[in-house]
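Ticket #4471: structure export looks truncated?
Reporter: QA, pipeline team
Priority: medium

Steps to reproduce: submit the single chain below to the structure queue and open the exported record.
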Amino acid sequence: MKRIYAILIITSSILFTGCDNGSSGSTGGASNIVPTRAVSIYPIQNQLCTENTINFQWNASKDANGDAIEYTLRVYTDFPNKDMYDDYTTTELSHTLTLEKGKAYYWEVIASDGEGEISGDFRQFYTESDAIVNYAPFSAELISPEILSELDAGTTTLEWSCTDLDDDPLTYTVYFGMDDSSLEMVAENIESTTFDVTTEAGNQYFWSVKATDPSGTATQGQTWSFYTKE
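Actual output as written to the record:
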């Protein structure tokens, strides 16, 4: 009986605590809701910018809690390896940078309310060169499967797209495996933008694609992943 009495006291204490209406001045501990994504406006995806001074622009995010929002513009020269060119935080909806000519750049905007953050869409573009050059392919873009999606085990079709400013025909090398630090090359110099792989149940798989143009200039894409159901 003593044990039952103790449990009743503890349960009653929890119930009374849960019914506190916050009259002591507490805000009630409302959870934070991260802002909506900042949508990139300029440069557009796969654009060749004729000027190397770029005014990056994006739409405003909204915050359900009414918190002030800051935006962090991140510009990379090699996105898969996170080679950062610039990292700038502002409350404005644009920022101007002078970039090197004849290079590929990748950019994203992270919206933050001080307690949580969310990345916007990822864009890539080129700055035009003074000389006539061969442009490397852009990084391959994911089509399917979606990042971190959960699929039935068996045969999975990997699908991507890729753009080349010179309109060169591209070939692809596909890397696949369960260890993202040591992916196995499963296809080399294929022209198709799809490739079938065999999976087993209850695993996480990683994959990436390298795009190569006829001159041998190649761009390694970022690593994506998905799960298979138990």
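Status: closed, not a bug. The export was complete when the record was re-opened. Leaving a note from the reviewer for reference: The chain has two domains: 40-127, 141-228.
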